Amino acid sequence: MKSMMKILTRYVLSATGVTLILLVINFAALAAWTVQAGKIAQKDYSVSQLADSLTKSDSVYTLSESLKNKIKKQNQWAMLLSDDGNVSWSENLPSDVPLKYSVSDVAGFTRWYLNGYPVYVWRHPDGLFVLGNKKGSVWKHDIEMPQKVMDNTLVWVPAVLILNGAAAILLALLFGMRLFRSLKPLARGIEDMAEKRTVELSTNGLLGDLAAGINKTSAQLAKQEAALNKRDNARTTWIAGVSHDIRTPLSLIMGYASQLENDPELPQSKREQAGIIRRQSQRIKTLINDLNLASKLEYDMQPLRQDSVALAPLLRIIAADFLNSGLSGSYSINVAMDESVQNVLVTGDEELLRRAVSNLITNSIRHNPKGCDIKVTPEKGFGNCSLSVSDNGVGFTHEMLNNLNYPKSSVELKNHGLGLTIVRQIIKAHGGTTEFRNLPEGGCTIVLCLPVSNKD
């Protein structure tokens, strides 16, 4: 469930990040709006500047031509009210604006609108200066706030922001927990499928369709697993049965062939033919045993008698057995090891390890009919021991190396047959690795890596 908690944590952190991003975006938008509003409202002059620029000379009020042009360009108008409420001067005055005002009229439009025109006022030595904008150009509203509230703004604004952030995180956590509860059965179902257990999830709720898909997949996998097990059991049973049925007649053939081979009354040619029959029968028996062992290793049916195996004596015995079995003089087997590996113990089944090394030596002999030098070299590493079997023969082709190091199936080993397949299976069953390489100077080497025994 660690992955589920990771999903929930990332969900909450993502929601928090989204909240912060939205706050930043909102503040940026507010700032942009404020700046834009300021640019729109910005003028080349203010009502106070206009009022101060309006001068009187010989009972006539004058305003500079530049300011008049700017007022017209902005679709504005201006007037000066005398103390008795009459308009004593005006510029670009609309026809629906009165020319006389009472005190109550002045009080009504001073801060807001005059006949729908937004207006601004400024005190003038000769009365009240009024600047008007066109209708619908300015929105004006009375905003009033107690001073105590304004004094606490620096406290309230951060508090509101923190409250909003906390609320967003809490909501994200609540929704995340709901999602977590919905995903938890799905995660458990996927884990069960990985362990090859049948899954039956409830298809109700938000993720019902996904649960139904997992149920369907689980049923299909279970069906396929049953079919594969049935096929594998049938194949293993067939191989074991055939191996058992062939051994008895094959033993009789080998026995009679051996008698004929050693019968002095037969001609030499007949005895040689009997020897061929015996050797080929022995080869068939070996192939049957290899096939049976490969099948058992493939399906973990071969019991491993794990023990601490002294590697150096085992390699010497294997080499001696080959040299004493009538091996041609065109072949040599050399076991090269230094003092550091003399007492190395590896964990494994001694008979299977003997079989693996023997198969490698046999492979070198079989594929180098003109002879070769075979070298067996163990080396101790950190927590493991590597064992290489090398020869100076023909080596592997590029295709062989690819199939040997990355086999899709044992069939792709072609003429290298079951021998190397069994080597790989034996080393894999021991928790080790197998690597096949060609040597730069010619020939090839197979490197086996095995765990070192704790008793070493």
TrEMBL record:
Identify the keywords attached in UniProt to this record, alphabetized.
Kinase, Membrane, Phosphoprotein, Transferase, Transmembrane, Transmembrane helix, Two-component regulatory system
Pfam family of the protein (one): HATPase_c
Q: Does the keyword Plastid apply?
A: no
One example of the protein's molecular function in GO is:
kinase activity
User: What InterPro entries does the annotation carry?
Assistant: HATPase_C_sf, HATPase_dom, His_kinase_dom, HisK_dim/P_dom, HisK_dim/P_sf, Sig_transdc_His_kin-like_C
User: Top EC class per UniProt?
Assistant: transferase
Q: What is its EC number?
A: 2.7.13.3
Instruction: Report the superkingdom from the record.
Output: Bacteria
Concerning CDD domains, the annotation shows:
HATPase, HisKA
Report what the protein is called.
Answer: histidine kinase
Identify the species of origin: Lutispora saccharofermentans
